[in-house]
Amino acid sequence: MRPNDLRRHVANLGLDLAEDNLRGRHCSVERNGHNDHADLLIDGLLRVEVKASLFTTHKHSRGRYQFNTRNRPDVYVLVCIGSGGHAFIIPDRAIEDRTNVAIWSQDPLTYTGMWRRYLNQWDIVQQELNRCQRRQGFSSPARTRT
User: Fold this and answer.
1) For the whole model, what pTM was predicted?
2) Domain assignment present for 142
3) Which of 17, 73, 75, 106 can pair with 47 through a Cys bridge, CB separation 3.0 to 4.6 Å?
4) Domain around 115
């Protein structure tokens, strides 16, 4: 597979995983256009950027998943491809001015670094959606989870 095809394939795997998880939590999910600053729009309000990465190793390195975080969405979903569907769901304000995030463990479940508390925390999306609604002056509808 050519490098551009592989990148596109990995990105699509990440988007599909994020969409499935969010729809499973009763969110309305829209895919944005290719040039938008966020990949997904949740309930017409929350901007979510999905980044996907394969675990890579380099000479003299123990390896990592690495994600570019230059856009400024409300939430990042950082998907570790090949890890069994694990993702880090991180509010933009936690990323601050970083331009990338690295996960230095092939198995995200054994990762103990600073991003550990965001592993598979899909409820962060609802928390950030509530925050956006308050900023916009919307009332926060209660969601029922099944």
Assistant:
1) 0.89
2) no
3) 73
4) 3-136
The sign one gets for the Cα dihedral 43, 23, 124, 108 is negative
| pLDDT, tens digit, 9 for 90 and up, residues 29-69 | 999 877 677 999 999 999 999 999 999 998 887 899 999 99
Residue type, 122: W
CATH code where residue 53 lies: 3.40.1350.10
Question: Containing H/E element for 68?
Answer: strand 65-68
Within a domain: 146: no
Closest listed residue to residue 47, CA positions, set 34, 32, 33? 32
- The letter for the amino acid at 10 is V
**91, 75 Cβ separation under 8 angstroms:** yes
Interstrand relation of 86-91 and 75-81 (parallel, antiparallel or unpaired)? antiparallel
Measure the CA–CA gap between 84 and 113, rounded to whole angstroms: 19
Q: What angle do CA 45, 23, 127 make, to 5 degrees?
A: 50
